[in-house]
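Need the bound structure for flavin-adenine dinucleotide, inputs here:
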Amino acid sequence: MKTSELFRDRTVLSFEVFPPKPTSDETVIYKTLEELAKLRPDCVSVTYGAGGGANCEKTVQIASDVKNKYGIESVAHLPCVYLSENDAVNILDKLKANGIENILALRGDISENTAPNGRFSHANELIEFICERYDFNIITACYPEKHFEAESLSEDLTHLKNKVDSGAAQLITQLFLDNRYFYDFLEQARKIGINVPVEAGIMPVVNAKQITRMVKLCGIKLPEKFRKVIEKYGDNPTAMYDAGIAYAIDQIVDLLSQGVDGIHLYTMNNAYVAERIYNAVYSLISVKTG
Ligand code: FAD
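Answer from helper R.:
Posting the output first, comments after.
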């Protein structure tokens, strides 16, 4: 099923997982998926190694298992900046052959050490390429605090509109820790005619080190409220764990009460954290507003 159709009658809940590193135990991800599957999310998305070369085997395999083994709609992430046209066709054909109907079309981060392939410079080019040749549902990324390379949010939104006009039917945001960024972003996006469903990307931050890395990597701001949490609990792993989960629940409750289209939980492959959050909010997700 095309996940963009889910938004017609519900607030969508999706989970994101990443494939294991080559050196890790391959079976762990399947234990995680088994636990996540019990929560019956609307879909599970599977990331594609940072940067995104042509080696997509694990993403395709896991996305295929999510759909065909666990019976949950799956989304395969596809960053394009290091792909040739042939690479893209090979991957897209594999996804299609495995019954996967949803693709999160991305550019991917550009590494200082490796030059891009040159065929796809931005996500909109991949979206156009896919839409001309296939019948996938296309999802794409957006950034409530703007993408770190963009000069301004309005410049970033112009590019986002281009991605939607190219065929993206659904958006998922980068994580944010202050819902006000999301609401401002959404208001501006709707004003310029971006009318597709937008899922809010929420990452439970369960250790202080993790957030320092994310702030640097994604260019997001650390709100005073979260800084206080780290100040008080950062040195106490158990307390920080609980505080991080509570903070994410608080964000989600606020988003749901404001009528958000969907919640995309960056699970970091931690089914226990996902379950705690799910248990705290599942009754709110099924409540219709308006
Ligand atoms: P683009 O949409 O191409 O945008 C990148 C920058 O270029 C922005 O500043 C934008 O304003 C600008 N821009 C866009 N279009 C144009 C244009 N036509 N001309 C000029 N400028 C333009 N990375 C991975 O490697 N693997 C993953 O699995 C993965 N999953 C992600 C999931 C989500 C929900 C999100 C939010 C991000 C994910 N990323 C992933 C990270 C993503 O690849 C990076 O943020 C990357 O730097 C930008 O990708 P993009 O698709 O947003 O790029």
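Comments: The domain at 3-284 is CATH 3.20.20.220 (TIM Barrel). The radius of gyration is 18 Å.
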